[in-house]
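re: ur question from yesterday

yeah so i grabbed the chain u mentioned. its 587 aa long if i counted rite. heres the sequnce exactly as i have it in my notes:
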Amino acid sequence: MKRNTLTHLTAISLLLLSTLSCNNYLNLDPPSAFDENYVFSTVPNATSAVLGAYDRLAGLQAYGSRLSMMYPYDNDEMVGVLNTTAPDNSSRDLSRYNLNPTNAQLRLPFEQLYAGVERANICIKNIPAMDLYQNGSAEEKIQLQRLHGEALTLRAQFYLELVRNWGDIPAPFEPSIDQTELFMDKTDRDTIYDRLINDLARASDLVPWRTEVASDERITKGAVKALRARLALYRGGYSLRRVSGIMERRPDYLKYYQIARDECFDIMQHRDQHTLNPSFQAVFKDGIDSYKIDPFGEVLFEVAMGRETDSNIGYYDGPRFYVPGNTSMLGNGQIRVIPTYFYSFDSLDIRRDVTTAPYYNSPEYFKTVQPLLNMTSGKFRSDWISPRLSSAIQATGLNWPLIRFSDVLLMFAEAENELRDGPTAEAIAAFEEVRTRGFGGDMDLIGSTPTTKDDFFEAIVKERSFEFGGEGIRKYDLIRWNLLGTKITEVREELTKMRNKQAPYENLPQHMYYKPSSTEVIWSHSLYQPTPSRAPSGFTRVNWIVALTDVWINNVAQLFQPNRNELMPLPQSATDANPNLKQDYGY
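ran it thru and got these structure tokens back, copy pasting raw so excuse formatting
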């Protein structure tokens, strides 16, 4: 939920930006109720303008729903909306990789991201040109420099989302009112990434560290550096190319791994600013789900949401629930955990029971276990939201975490391993710091860390899955590693083994017995041993492995095609409006 300086996006911020920008990046003739000289004449007005750019990160067409809970699925951890009997040209087809340019979930997120780019462009052009930027008081200069850095960072985040979903795209870096070309061609994604990486180097010099300013959701130096590292890994990773039509990595990729490594290393040297919360669960239950900012600075960058307008997080996903005075079960529970993902966790890894939720909530908020295939993502769950939801409104106001400190540690470990042709002591230490937290701080439980390049990379691939499940990261990780198709095939094969009771799944329970509880699920027996032959007294039976069917298995990323579905088609409205835009990648 928006707090402190982001508590209320003032009316002026939205009015100013709406009059200076275009709602659709293809419409290059915006109205002008206020001219730029007025908007960017004072620090408060400039602040309002930047807050208007922040606003485009929020809402159901951005990280309140589509970008966080629809676009990242299906992957090898979780699946999106389950199939009905026919294609829907909407969220179900999106999850199954059955995409057409007319899909109902493409146009509005695409346009909102470009609206964010436009608002950021206006700020980036005008803030450094303000007289106060050069001649104001020391405090005014500091505030305007921060606003400039925030705008550069916001533009990078908007473009990251556009590029990793659509590839080469039109890339305006000036406000639409200043553009001479009405119908822009596509810009190569490498050119876009290079520009953004340079922008973020500048932005990191302009914004303060977290503890140097008030505690709120505005961008600070750690967020800029972490985002720069993330962009560098995408720039150095694999991507589906327009010319060749295949997944390729550029020959200069190590240059970008070095950037990622250096940015992460610098953040790691500032533990007074950002470090791991000792409790993995607390990051979500006591932080995001309680509308509080993490005291350890683990969440470097999060999207601030409005309670009743911006976010379906915890309603669209997570266990279903009731509210007082409503007799119908609420929540969608649409993001379902793939059984092999649940069983990929070590039984002692506490992240499993934070990341996954095998129950719905009764009207009394007792946990009622569901069949295995109804297990939902768990980090944003209704029974953790505090204060508890009290109405049937779908908006929860939960913020969306974009980058956590554990990501910084694992990006560092990954880049260091690639650059040094194997894991250094520093890479191993960063990896083990994340893994040890996952086992409650007990290093004796984490097992042996691989010491060869390939094995350490495989460990990174797994650890990022354990750490970031349900946070919208996995699909894009797999794409930059060129592993999405491989992992989809693997998960179907493993699910088939599980369905057929083949090793290593032959001893898993076909049914589970549980008792409803208000605090935690009470199981009668192990999740890793066969079902007891006799039903235990006082327990309720629920279908477990026996629930798995061939139809369910085949629905996982059902129509994914390598060298095609790593990217999405442009919305039909975009190609209709711009004759220079053409579909690629077989769409």
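noticed a couple things. The two ends are 38 Å apart (CA to CA). also Residues 351 and 467 are 7 Å apart (CA to CA).
anyway ttyl
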